[in-house]
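Structure, all two chains, one model.
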Amino acid sequence: MLEFVFLLPIVTGLTAMFVPVALGRGILLIAALLHLQLTAMAWMNKLNPYFPDYFSTSPEGLLILLVTSFIFLFISVYAISYMRETEMQSEHIFISCMLLFLGTMSMVTLSDHPIVLWIAIEATTLVSAPLIFINRSKEALEATWKYVLICSVGIALALLGCFFITLAMDIKDIDASLTFSSLNAVADQLDPNWLKAGFIFIMIGFGTKMGLAPMHTWLPDAHSQAPSPASALLSGALLNCAFLGIYKVHVLMHVAGLGDYSSNILIGFGLVSMFVAGIFILNQPDYKRMLAYSSVENMGVIAIGVGIGGIALYGAILHLIHHSLIKSSLFLSAGNILLGFGTRLVKRTGNLARLFPKTFVAFFAGFAGISGFPPFGIFISELLIIMGAFQRGRYAVLAIFLFCLTLVCAGAARIVMRISFAANTGEDVLVEERMIRILPSYALLLTSIGLCLWMPESIYQIILSTIKVLGGVVHG
Amino acid sequence: MINYSDAVLVIILLSVLIALESNRMVALVKIMGLQGIMVSLVPLFLPQHQELGSGGIIFFQIMILIKGLLIPGLLYFAVQKVAIKREVEPIIGYHASLFVGLMMIMVSLFITEKLQVTLPGGHSLLLITAITTLGAGLFLMMSRTKAITQVIGYLMLENGIYLVGTALSKQSHTRYVVEFGVLLDVLVGVMIMGIILHNINRAFDDVDTALLGRLKD
């Protein structure tokens, strides 16, 4: 039964609310492991949906499910140590919401019905809200309020988009069930005007959740105020899920022969996101906000890659995988820095290389990875997107793309250098680094390197079947 | 003979206008309760819902309970507990808001006329009501300072979207299970917002959104 993939974390999450904290930590870890196993079973086609009208496996969904499940395992190992170190209040709520968050995200990746997809995405907002305001500071409350309100309103507009797509089918009196697979089968008969209207609303709605500018305003606040394991999950897993909603509708548009229209909208939002992120990252005083803006930028990169198509689409899918791995690793390292210095402000940190050598390696390597240096995967994915832009002759897009990449890299480099090497203002180290909070970061980074050297055949095949529908190619 | 569905829709339009003009929090919550009940009644009067299965009956009963009783009840509780001053405190005055509401009806009429060519017929008043409710919800969110009025604006937006959904789609796709999921999301959303509001009130001693301006670039 395919539904076990999301029922398991939801049930264990609800259980964790009512058991002692020590037991809850164990449940978190075991549920993460079991979830990875269920994901593997889903990959091997061993699970059949019990409600095929609502849930089914799709290649893009499976890919995002695997990424989510994989990074969740490492984040949960980190979270256990982090929670012990910070002596978090209401830890059982945190554990419970982490698991519910995993459950709702898995539900997003498996849903085939547009409105069920919508329900799952809205549910991710609701269960992740307690993760952000768990320490109940004024700033955290403000961030949560913005997060819940902006995302709920945005996602409500996406529901309107879903209704428009239904209407596109009803107007032409097509009798098909409302699932993405059957919609794709009858796509060329759908009413194009309503489809276009639907795509715009879905783009704005799920784009809000994905963090595309100008609807990104909640993202830096929520990512900087949430405890680091939660930020890592928000950035590494949640944004992908929102992207999946847009991607599925983009595929529908493409099959309906409106691919150019939706591609141009994707590229437009992508460029605006990259530019806004580049501007705000330049003089950023807060390193967690810097990472959050970097997520906005990378979501822009993915949107542009998908919009360009061809070999750039392959690049975008690779970018999605590697961004999740590297960015969650960076947020985990940032958590160690925050524990060690007790501040989010760059100017009150410094000398990371000497004080926390192991964290420094993870943080600096993560920075190199996210900026697109080899041997990390983002080097390859960005190169593929650039090549794709050349092939399609989109030189203006390419110029802005490269300019924004430079901007972001310069802004981030200044902050990372300052944290790593500048003389410390002489404050004491609050919490020593511990191996258990560093190994997850290392593991995620090494996975990114590993996937560049050798990509398992099954992952490669899934990526191929993901991009086949949109006419993506691997060899340019 | 009175056309019941039109009567219900007119009550919804009036509730939107009264909500834009009301200056007491408690009155606003009561109006939302009325609107919730009316919105849950609309589908019963539409031709595509003539025959209800057992799933449909249960769904509509639960919907009227949630929209008409549970959500307004939660809001009423929140107002009692959170708001020290019971005034709505608008950024845009009541009369101007009312005027905006009336303009919105005009605009909705215009949009509906434009769309009429491609719509299944007979739903024009429903669509006008839906778009007005949707727009008024957005307007209410932007033009009031209290955080709790933003929740009410969100609910009104959601009511509008629900009406658009009932106006436009055939029953065959939107199964009750799916609609129930949407409803549950809204309910849990309001509960979560209520919890955050309660915490904001404890931390700031007020629920004015002007206080929420600490995080900036």
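Chain B is about 70% helix and 0% strand.
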